[in-house]
């Protein structure tokens, strides 16, 4: 199992530092726009207070780090950790350009990084904990970084069926290209869809009072169908399916045209929006 976990962890590091995922750093503004409806739910669940110390796992390009830093104020501290070099570089640049001296980001695998014991009051993540190779061991490591009176507040996706913003566009192009099969519990976007599994992982890592609350944020995919299709082709599951299939250029254009037509049916006054489905996961060390 240890060897398998090490192999999976290495694959995750390679993936999140590959050209396929560089877009998460380069297009962070677009990603933030899609996920804007999630952040208020996460902040409410975490309820960061002035002076508290926050550890943000899988922090990406720093949006959540800066949001938590604003809440804890100059007497607090927020440390983000991510394995993607490009995203960490963007996050550090954004922090340097802000007035949030209490914020910082490190390039590290939070699953194994030796954080200072009992040095954080809040453990949080916006979609960064579903990719651990050995989630029980990873959360046990993170639990050691929390103070005895600390707390956990995480956002993770529910099932694909409860996330039409991600699954419906993929269904619309399934006749053209299908995503590669994945194991339900393999690291990935929907790895925490099963609430019973989440309970087992956190309890197995030593956490108590584990709770899962549903939230259904609106995911704004673009200002119009053209923008939404471009976003899907740039950073969504459609792009991953095309890459996995080694699709020729003509198939890319067919998929793009199909997505434009799909998103036109979902245009509204505020652009293209579809429902998301997330868990807000809370626990105590």
Quick overview of this protein structure:
The chain is α/β, with parallel strands linked by helices. The protein has helices at residues 2-16, 23-26, 28-34, 39-46, 63-72, 85-97, 135-143, 164-172, 195-204, 225-235, 237-244, 249-264; strands spanning 53-57, 77-82, 103-107, 120-126, 146-157, 208-215, 218-222, 267-268, 271-275, 278-284. α5 links the parallel β1 and β2 (77-82).
List the helices and strands and how they pair.
Layout lengths: L1 H15 L6 H4 L1 H7 L4 H8 L6 E5 L5 H10 L4 E6 L2 H13 L5 E5 L12 E7 L8 H9 L2 E12 L6 H9 L22 H10 L3 E8 L2 E5 L2 H11 L1 H8 L4 H16 L2 E2 L2 E5 L2 E7 L1
Parallel strand pairs: 1-2, 1-4, 2-3, 4-5
Antiparallel strand pairs: 5-10, 6-10, 7-9, 8-9
Helix pairs in contact: 7-9, 10-11, 10-12
Task: Give the tags.
42% helix; 285 residues; seven-stranded mixed beta sheet; alpha/beta
């Amino acid at each position: 199992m240890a060897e398998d976990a090490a192999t999976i962890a290495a694959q995750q590091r390679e993936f999140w530092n590959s050209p396929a995922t560089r877009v998460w750093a380069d297009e962070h503004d677009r990603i933030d726009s899609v996920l804007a409806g999630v952040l208020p739910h996460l902040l409410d669940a975490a309820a960061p207070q002035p002076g508290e110390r926050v550890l943000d796992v899988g922090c990406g390009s720093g949006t959540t780090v800066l949001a938590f830093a604003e809440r804890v104020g100059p007497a607090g501290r927020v440390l983000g950790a991510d394995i993607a070099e490009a995203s960490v570089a963007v996050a550090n640049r954004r922090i340097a350009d802000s007035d949030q001296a209490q914020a910082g980001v490190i390039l590290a695998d939070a699953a194994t990084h030796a954080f200072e014991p009992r040095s954080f009051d809040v453990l949080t993540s916006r979609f960064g904990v579903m990719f651990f190779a050995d989630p029980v061991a990873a959360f046990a490591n993170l639990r050691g970084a929390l103070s005895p009176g600390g707390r956990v507040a995480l956002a993770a996706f529910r099932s694909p069926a409860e996330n039409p913003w991600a699954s419906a566009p993929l269904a619309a192009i399934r006749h053209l290209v299908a995503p590669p099969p994945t194991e339900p519990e393999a690291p990935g976007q929907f790895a925490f869809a099963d609430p019973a599994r989440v309970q087992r992982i956190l309890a197995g890592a030593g956490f108590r009072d584990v709770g899962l609350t549903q939230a259904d944020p609106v995911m704004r995919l673009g200002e119009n169908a053209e923008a939404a299709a471009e976003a899907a082709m740039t950073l969504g599951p459609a792009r991953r399916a095309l890459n996995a299939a080694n699709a020729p250029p003509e198939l890319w254009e067919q998929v793009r045209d199909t997505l434009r037509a799909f998103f036109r049916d979902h245009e509204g006054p505020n652009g293209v929006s579809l429902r998301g489905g997330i868990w807000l996961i809370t626990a105590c060390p």
